[in-house]
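In keeping with the milestone schedule agreed at the kick-off meeting, the structural modelling team has produced records for the first pair of proteins. Each record is given below as a sequence line and a C-alpha cell line. The laboratory manager (R.T.) confirmed that both were archived under the project's standard naming scheme.
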Amino acid sequence: MATVDAAPPLDILVREPEGFYVWGGPPFNNGQPSMKLEKVPCTKVKFSEDGSRLMVMTSESGIGIYDCCSLKEIKSFQVPAVGATLSPCGTYLQTFQKSLTPQEKNLVLWKTDTGDAVYNLFQKHMTKDTWPSIRFSSDEAVACRVATNEIQFFDAKDFAKGILYRLRIPGVAAFELSKAPGTHVATFVPESKGSPASVQIYACDKDPQSQPLARKSFFRCSTVQLLWNHGSTGLLVVVQSDVDKTNQSYYGESKLNYLTTDGTHEGLVPLRKEGPVHDVQWSHSGSEFAVVYGFMPASATVFDKRCRPLLELGSGPYNTIRLNPKGKFLCLAGFGNLPGDMAFWDYEDKKQLRTTRAELSVTSEWSPDGCYFMTATTAPRLQVDNGIKIFHYDGSLYFKKKFEKLFQAEWKPESPDRFGDIAELIKSISTLKVDESKQKGPGSASKKPASANPPAAKPAAYRPPHAKQAAAIQAELFGESPSQEMSKNALKNKKKREKLKEKKAAGS
C-alpha cells in the first residue's frame, strides 16, 4: 500500500461559462486554493476514469486531450461530434456524429496517443442506454458493445481484428460490463408479449453457448440500473416501473435486487420499509453496500456482500448516500428537492459524527483520499446561489466559495489505493488543525470563532393577519410589545393586574 508521502496531490476541476481551470486541492495554503491550470475555453470537459487524461471539447468542433500530470495538451482532434467520451485509462476517444445513411460510419474510436481511427461503425441513435456504444472494463482488458440480439466482444488492444466472438441474447436492450476485473457482463431484456423482463449474468468467455450464471425475472419493469461491485462478484439491480399499482407514489415503483456471480443469492434485498429506492452505492472494497429507501422520512441501511444488514442509519429527509472510498466513513444526505441535511457517520464504529446542511446541492463526492467531502450547486439545474463547499471527513466545514455561475466542480480521479490508511490520514489532518490554531496569535483564544454551520433558526408559528393586528392593539392598551418583550411600565402593569386577580380570588 502506498504511503502518505508517496500519495498523489488532490486536484479540483472547476468550470464556469468562460471555460475550466484546475485548483490544487486541500489542504490549502492561507485557506485558499492555488491555481494549477489557468482558465481554458471549453463547452465540455471530462476526466478519464483513472484520472490520467482529460477530454476538452470546444465550440469550434475541436476536442483536446490533456495529460493530467503535466496539464498540457498532448493531442487534438477536429471532429464535429455530438457526443464524445474517453475510455477508462484514456487510451481511446470515442466520438458520435449525426448520420443519415448506414454507409457513413458515424461512430469512431480513436487512439489518443497517435490520433489514428482504429474502429468505426454506423449507429443510428445515441441514447443514455446505448452510450458509450463500446464499453471497457476499468483496466481496458475487455471491450464489448450491444447489437441486435447479441453482445459483441473485441480485442481491446487490437480493434483491427474486428469482432472476436458474440454472445447471443434475444431481445437484449442494455448491458453493463463488470469494472474490475472485467470477467462478467450483466444484460437486460425488457418485457415482451407477456413475457417478463429479465437480468442475466454471463461470463466474458468465448463459449458461444454460454449459459447465464445468474438470472432474475421481473414484471412491471420499465428500466433498470445495473451496479457492479469492485471484484465483480455481486450485482445490484434497481428495477423501476412507471406505474405504482398501490397508488402510493406518483413517480412509480422501484425495487432493489441482488445477484451474485457464484449463484448464492438471486432475489430482493431485505429492506425494512415500503417505498422507492432513492440511492444505492457499493463501497470501494466491494464488500458492503448502502441503500436509502422508503417513503419520507426515508431509511438507510448498510449491508454486507451476503446481503445481511450491518448497520441501521435511522430515518430522515434523505435521498443520497456516499460511501468514503477509503472505508470507515459515509455521508447520508437529502439533496435535490430536499433541504440539504447531511449526516456524517463512522460506520465501522457505528456512531454518528456530525449533522450539518448544504442547501441546494446538485453534486456531491468524497475526495480520492477520503479526507474531504465536496458539494456543489451548479447550473443549469440551479441558476442562482452557485458555489462549492468542502467539508472535513467528520462534517465540519473547511472551505466555501460562491460563483456567479458554476457548471461543474469535481475531484480529479485517483485510485484510493494510492493513498495511505484512512486512520493515518485523518490523524495528519488533526495535526494540521492544531497547527492552524497555534498560528492565530495571542488573544485569539479568547475570541470564540463563529460557527461554520450555525444551527437553523426555529421557524415561528404561523399567525394570521387578524391575530397580528389584535396583538398590536393589545400592546397599545396594556403597554406590551407585540414581539413579547415588555417595557418596564408594561411589566409593572402586568404585576398589578396579577395582584388584583389574587385579591379577588382570596376575597371570593
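The second protein of the pair:
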Amino acid sequence: MRAALAPGVRLLRALPRDSRYRGLTLVLTFLSYTSYHLSRKPISIVKSQLHPNCSTLGPNPHNDSNSTTWCSWAPFDGDNYKELFGALDNAFLVAYAIGMFISGIFGERLPLRYYLSGGMVLSGLFTSLFGLGYFWDIHVLWYFIIVQVCNGLVQTTGWPAVVACVGNWFGKGKRGLIMGIWNSHTSVGNILGSLIAGAWVSSAWGLSFVVPGIIIAIVGIICFFFLVEYPEDVDCSPPVHHVSRAGSQGDPEVVTSNEGPLSLSGQSSVDHHSNSPREPAEKPEAISFLGALRIPGVVEFSLCLLFAKLVSYTFLYWLPLYIVNVAHFGAKEAGDLSTLFDVGGILGGIFAGLISDYTGGRATTCCVMLVVAAPMLFLYNHVGQNGIGTSIAMLIICGALVNGPYALITTAVSADLGTHESLKGNAKALSTVTAIIDGTGSVGAALGPLLAGLISPTGWNNVFYMLIAADVLACLLLARVVVKEARGWCGYMARQRGFKEF
C-alpha cells in the first residue's frame, strides 16, 4: 500500500512557483547571515576567559602566590588586556569597514552565489584558525590580529550579497516588515553564537571558534548548491520596486510610499514601466561608487548608521564583559544574559519595519527610536543591575531601541535606495548602495569597541555617556530626511481634504 504524499510536500505544491522560490531565497539568506553573526560573536564571550579572575580558581599551581594572572592566556595576561581586546576588535572591524566599500563593487560584477558561498567558506577557515590558536598553544598577539584582519575582509562578502538577493526577489510593498522579520538573523546569530561559544568557553575556548567556523562553511556550501540570484533565472516574475502615482488619486499607500524617504529628490515618481516585468534582454551596467552616493538619502542614512552601529557593536563586543564586571556573573552566565539584548533586537527590527511600512516614514521611525534609546541606555547603566528581573527587562528594551533603527537602515532602507526611482529601473545598484551604507556604518562599528576599550578603564559610566551621545548624533543626521517626510505627509493630508471637499 502506497503512503499519501507528505503534508509538507503537498503544501509546497500548493504554493505558487514564485512563492516557493521567494521562500527558498529568504531561508537561505537568513541562514547565511545567521552563520556570519554566529561566527563573530565568540570573541565577546571568550574575552572573559582569556583574562579571568584567577583568585576564584584556587591556589596557583605554579607556586607563585603573588600572581593573579596565572590562569590568563598570554599575551592577554597583562594590565593592558582591555586595550589588547580593543585591538582584536578593531583589527576585525577596520578591515571589515575598508573591505565593505570594495565588496559592494565586486558584488555587482560577480555572480552573487559564488561570491557569497566562497566568502562563507573562507570565513569559516579564519574563524577556526583563531580557535586553533588554543590547541596550537599560540601566545603571539600578531597571530590573532592577522587572523582577525583576514576574517574581517572575507566577511564583507556577506551583507551586500544577501541584501541584493532579497532585493532582487521582493518589491517595495511590505519590504519593511518582511525584511524586519528576516533581519532577525543578526540577533539569532548572536544568540546562537553566544550559546555555542558559552558551551566550551570554560573548558576549551578554542572550540568556541572552531565549531562556528565549521557551521558557516557548511551553510556556504549549501548556498552554492541551492541559491537563486534572480527571479528571471528560474522563469519567475520580477518584483515591482516602485508604485506609480498615475491613476492612484487618493490612495494613501501610493502617496505615502512616494512621499517617504524614497522621494528625497522631490521629483515626481511616474514610472510607466514599473508594473511590467523587467526585460531580461536589457542588462544595465552596474552603478559607479559616486553614482550610488548621488542617490538621494544614501549619504544621510550612511552617516546615521555610522553612529547607530557604533552603539550596537559596542554592546555586541563588550556587554558580556560589562555584566561580568558590574553584576559579577560568571563568563557563561554573562554570555547567556547578553543574548536578551539580541532578543530585544529581533522585536525592535520587526516593529521598526512594520511601523515604517504603515507610515511610509523610514527616517522618522529611526529618529523616534533613537530619541527614546538615549534615556533608556542611561537607565540601564544606573538601575539595570538592581535585580535579575530589572536586568532582563532593560536588556530587551535597550536591544529593541538600539537595534531597531540599525536593522531598518541596513535592510529596507538599503533595498529601497538600491532600487531608487532615480535609477530608472537599473537594479544593478543594490549591492553597491548596501555596501556604502553598511561600510560607513562599519566605521562606527570599529570605533565603538575601540572607544569602549579606551574609556572603560575610567569607568563604565563614561562608556554609556559616549553611547548616548552617538544615539543623539545619529538622530540629528536624519533631520533633513525627517523634514522631507513630514512635508510629504502634510501634502498628502492637504490633498485628502481637497478630495473630500470636491
